[in-house]
């Protein structure tokens, strides 16, 4: 079984009036199936309101399924006794770095999690050092977090999750509030953790550029998984992506337009190098 | 109607250990009806710059002229300036506070001293122009989606009928559909009402697509101030200051290096496509896709 497995997962947000009568029901997740293998780098794409974040909160047992089942590392998230183990298995990083940092010194912030679950002091420091190193922030360990840039703060937040030694990290739009440099830093850190430490990564985003290097991509819309496949398979369907409110990177869009104009360009071009090669081949 | 910045300097926390010069000898002229993009990496002085334009921060030295009048003059009416130069901050939806969307949007004009009826008319007009469905007008702004909230916040500024609209990263955190919604709205305001627009952005692709003039900020100074194609010619320098040209510009440069005679000034997908079709198929330059007509051409 994969590290995250969802079977016919449904989540409904129910709004009630003051007397507790149901006012409206919104289905945020509509029979989702998901199977993530350990060590994979998974991207979940979708526009605002497509259900991505609702799904993410299930993986961390912050929300419970209305119907269907979800197992994280083999544990059923609906069982009360599994909630803490599940949260230790799957760490979560949110969008706004300022909402996730609580201590006034970087290393104390990173050590907060392990301290909270009763890790011995020596081991806490070891974990703090290790996780700061893994996101490239070790030289800032004695700094105050509020003097850091957005990308640096977000990497501290990731280090804080790493210090809990999770098998899996869910990043919920971790770059949405960052500038291009910060975005690069955070993505780089996520890929490093995936490759060097073998942590399973679930990256939730609406920036298409960020999913190019993922192993597998799920596209969500209106609570459904509407497309899934490798980045190349996904990006070869420019029209379908647009229907789901998503954009493709400039390079992929250009390649698609050129192909429509009758040029012999392969489907699903992802990188500049590929497009340069394809064009040079045509030019002879 | 124009804004002129003359040798503007701004220093944060002057005389303390945290002293930072955020703006250094900035000279700019912002003419009526322009669509301007301001780019620069975090901390380059973009936000400080735009907060000078409606007198929210006062320059440490230098002068700003609004229609020829010095805004730092004692008898200059700063209130009037703020009525005419509207500023939409980053994450403007955090500033929504009223119980209904309609009240929130009419707060600005009411504050300007307009009567309740007039303010209401302004709010209707502004909400209609941002394309918010009418059945939502009397609902709480907090139940809206992120993109809708932001449109309401922008409507709140539009209701004050500014002549200059300044937006600080209006698309940050929005998905592609929300981003297009906001940028198309701004472009429409510019086109239909002739409003001067100043757009602060991190996205080179967006800037290249919409604006006619780019101001590049670096370490508090104006590094470039020109049309998109001219500015993006300096893509190597832009990289050194933590920015980048649009992806297609790089592509065109790489093709040129390999000996293909393409237009390296292309900054949008439409321009790149046109140049490539011309080179590869020998097509006439004017043949363009109908879905791309809105983009600027060099």
UniProtKB/TrEMBL annotation, chain A:
<dbReference type="GO" id="GO:0043190">
    <property type="term" value="C:ATP-binding cassette (ABC) transporter complex"/>
</dbReference>
<keyword id="KW-0472">Membrane</keyword>
<dbReference type="InterPro" id="IPR017871">
    <property type="entry name" value="ABC_transporter-like_CS"/>
</dbReference>
<dbReference type="Pfam" id="PF00005">
    <property type="entry name" value="ABC_tran"/>
</dbReference>
<comment type="similarity">
    <text>Belongs to the ABC transporter superfamily.</text>
</comment>
<dbReference type="InterPro" id="IPR030947">
    <property type="entry name" value="EcfA_1"/>
</dbReference>
<dbReference type="InterPro" id="IPR003593">
    <property type="entry name" value="AAA+_ATPase"/>
</dbReference>
<keyword id="KW-1278">Translocase</keyword>
<keyword id="KW-0067">ATP-binding</keyword>
<dbReference type="InterPro" id="IPR003439">
    <property type="entry name" value="ABC_transporter-like_ATP-bd"/>
</dbReference>
<dbReference type="InterPro" id="IPR027417">
    <property type="entry name" value="P-loop_NTPase"/>
</dbReference>
<keyword id="KW-0813">Transport</keyword>
<keyword id="KW-1003">Cell membrane</keyword>
<dbReference type="GO" id="GO:0005524">
    <property type="term" value="F:ATP binding"/>
</dbReference>
<dbReference type="GO" id="GO:0042626">
    <property type="term" value="F:ATPase-coupled transmembrane transporter activity"/>
</dbReference>
<dbReference type="InterPro" id="IPR015856">
    <property type="entry name" value="ABC_transpr_CbiO/EcfA_su"/>
</dbReference>
<dbReference type="GO" id="GO:0016887">
    <property type="term" value="F:ATP hydrolysis activity"/>
</dbReference>
<protein>
    <submittedName>
        <fullName>ABC transporter, ATP-binding protein</fullName>
    </submittedName>
</protein>
<dbReference type="InterPro" id="IPR050095">
    <property type="entry name" value="ECF_ABC_transporter_ATP-bd"/>
</dbReference>
<feature type="domain" description="ABC transporter">
    <location>
        <begin position="14"/>
        <end position="247"/>
    </location>
</feature>
<keyword id="KW-0547">Nucleotide-binding</keyword>
């Amino acid at each position: 079984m994969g590290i995250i497995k969802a079977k016919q997962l449904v989540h409904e947000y129910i709004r009630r009036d003051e007397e507790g009568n149901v006012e409206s029901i919104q289905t945020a997740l509509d029979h989702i199936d998901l199977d993530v293998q350990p060590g994979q780098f998974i991207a979940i794409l979708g526009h605002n309101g497509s259900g991505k974040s609702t799904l993410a909160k299930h993986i961390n047992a912050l929300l419970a399924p209305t119907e269907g089942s979800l197992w994280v590392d083999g544990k059923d998230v609906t069982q009360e006794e599994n909630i803490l183990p599940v949260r230790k298995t799957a760490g979560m990083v949110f969008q706004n770095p300022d909402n996730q940092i609580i201590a006034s010194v970087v290393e104390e912030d990173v050590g907060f999690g392990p301290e909270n679950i009763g890790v011995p002091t020596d081991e806490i420091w070891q974990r703090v050092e290790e996780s700061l190193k893994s996101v490239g922030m070790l030289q800032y360990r004695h700094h105050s977090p509020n003097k850091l840039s957005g990308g640096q703060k977000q990497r501290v937040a990731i280090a804080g999750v790493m210090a809990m030694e999770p098998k899996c990290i869910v990043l919920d739009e971790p770059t949405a509030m960052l500038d291009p440099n910060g975005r690069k830093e955070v993505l780089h850190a996520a890929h490093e953790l995936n490759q060097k430490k073998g942590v399973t990564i679930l990256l939730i985003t609406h920036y298409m550029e960020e999913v190019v290097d993922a192993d597998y991509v799920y596209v969500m819309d209106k609570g459904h998984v509407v497309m899934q496949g490798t980045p190349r398979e996904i990006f070869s369907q420019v029209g379908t992506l647009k229907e789901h409110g998503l954009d493709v990177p400039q390079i992929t869009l250009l390649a698609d337009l050129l192909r429509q104009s009758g040029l012999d360009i392969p489907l699903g071009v992802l990188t500049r190098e590929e497009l340069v090669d394809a064009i040079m081949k045509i030019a002879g | 109607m124009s804004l002129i910045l003359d040798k503007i300097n701004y220093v944060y926390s002057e005389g303390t250990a945290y002293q930072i010069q955020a703006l250094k000898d900035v000279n700019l002229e912002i003419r009526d009806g322009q669509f301007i993009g301001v780019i620069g990496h975090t901390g380059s002085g973009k936000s400080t710059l735009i907060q000078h334009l409606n007198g929210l921060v006062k320059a440490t030295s230098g002068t700003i002229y609004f229609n020829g009048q010095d805004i730092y003059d004692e008898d200059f009416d700063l209130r009037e300036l703020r009525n005419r130069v509207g500023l939409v901050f980053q994450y403007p939806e955090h500033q929504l506070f009223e119980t209904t969307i309609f009240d929130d949007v009419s707060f600005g004009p009411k504050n300007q001293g307009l009567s309740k009826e007039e303010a209401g008319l302004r709010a209707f007009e502004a909400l209609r122009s941002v394309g918010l469905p009418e059945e939502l007008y009397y609902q709480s702004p907090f139940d809206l989606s992120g993109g809708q909230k932001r449109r309401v916040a922008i409507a709140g500024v539009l209701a004050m009928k500014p002549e200059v609209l300044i937006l600080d990263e209006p698309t940050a955190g929005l998905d592609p559909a929300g981003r297009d919604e906001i940028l198309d709205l701004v472009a429409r305001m510019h086109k239909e009402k002739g409003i001067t627009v100043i757009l602060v952005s991190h996205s080179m692709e967006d800037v290249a697509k919409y604006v006619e003039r780019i101001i590049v900020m670096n370490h508090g100074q104006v590094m470039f101030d020109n049309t998109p194609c001219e500015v993006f010619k300096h893509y190597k320098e832009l990289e050194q200051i933590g920015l980048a040209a649009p992806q297609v510009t790089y592509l065109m440069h790489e093709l040129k290096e390999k000996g293909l005679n393409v237009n390296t000034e292309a900054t949008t997908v439409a321009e790149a496509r046109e140049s490539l079709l011309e080179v590869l198929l020998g097509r006439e330059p004017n043949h363009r896709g109908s879905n791309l007509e809105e983009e600027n051409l060099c």
